[in-house]
Design goal:
By secondary structure, this protein is α+β, with helices and mostly antiparallel strands. The chain has two domains: 2-160, Sulfate adenylyltransferase (Roll); 167-253, Arc Repressor Mutant, subunit A. It has helices at 63-68, 115-120, 126-137, 157-160, 172-182, 188-200, 203-210, 214-231, 236-241, 244-249, and strands at 2-6, 20-24, 38-39, 55-58, 73-78, 87-92, 95-109, 145-156.
């Protein structure tokens, strides 16, 4: 008997075209094949992992709430397996804002969320939290399972590295170079965009040549940047400490 296991990324739980890998129920999972499904907000994309993700992405609006300690948790759709005391990195879109420590990972049904859960998540009351979840996920079944990840900020990178938190201090050129080298299954359109940028050295000129907006081109860089983080190719703290001048002159060491 075979069971289907998610093995790719998607944008949300309603997305069409998921690919599957099949295995026998008694066959051990191979590296990279996962059973636990973690659906993240559409602005972030969805990653599939049996374990806690090392990087959590948020909208810009949550930066001050997180750094001030008013937002102490995040709620993600689906079951995420994780342990307390893990180190994670918090991002507000392309900004790496902090290193944090996981305090607790709790799973419950959407209908069982409480006002206390809302307060920890930075909202004044439960209806506000539910409205935000609906905004990101669309209509939700009250029986859906969610995971509450509680965390404590240990290091505020916006204070320690104020000029380097955007893309961990990396330039577009460095991101393009690393993505082309490390990501084996780049979309052809993304590969073309990155290669063209390395020639033109300009977002505006590259976007104009390709017939896309600056915003759309920057989104390509954001997507490959997140993939490099997910792969473990980029080490956030190491990138923050290394000077861009050094990286530019020593790309192969980067």
């Amino acid at each position: 008997m075979y069971s289907k296991v998610f093995a790719v990324e998607g944008m949300d739980e309603n997305i069409k075209g998921f690919k599957f890998k099949e295995r026998r129920n008694d066959e051990p999972l191979k590296t990279g094949v996962v059973e636990t499904i973690q659906f993240l907000p559409s602005w972030e994309g969805a990653k599939l992992s049996r374990n806690m993700v090392k990087h959590l992405f948020f909208n810009r609006e949550f930066e001050n709430l997180i750094l001030s300690g008013r937002k102490k948790s995040t709620i993600r759709l689906g079951r995420i397996v994780g342990d307390s005391n893990e180190t994670i990195y918090l991002h507000c879109e392309e900004k790496l804002i902090a290193k944090a420590r996981v305090k607790a990972v709790t799973c419950k049904k959407l209908k069982d969320l409480t006002d206390e859960d809302a307060l920890k998540d930075g909202f004044k009351k439960l209806p506000d939290l539910l409205m935000a979840l609906k905004k990101y996920y669309g209509k939700l079944n009250p029986e859906k399972e969610v995971t509450i990840i509680e965390f404590k900020v240990e290091e505020d990178y916006t204070k320690k590295y104020p000029d380097r938190v955007r893309y961990c201090g990396l330039t577009y050129e460095q991101i393009a170079f690393k993505a082309l080298k490390e990501i084996k299954e780049l979309k052809p359109s993304n590969r073309e965009a990155l290669n063209h940028y390395l020639i033109r050295k300009s977002i505006a000129k590259t976007a104009k040549d390709l017939g896309v907006t600056n915003r759309k081109l920057k989104r390509v860089f954001f997507q490959v940047y997140k993939e490099l983080l997910r792969m473990g190719v980029l080490e956030p703290e190491k990138c923050l400490r290394i000077e861009n001048v050094y990286l530019a002159k020593n790309k192969r060491k980067f």
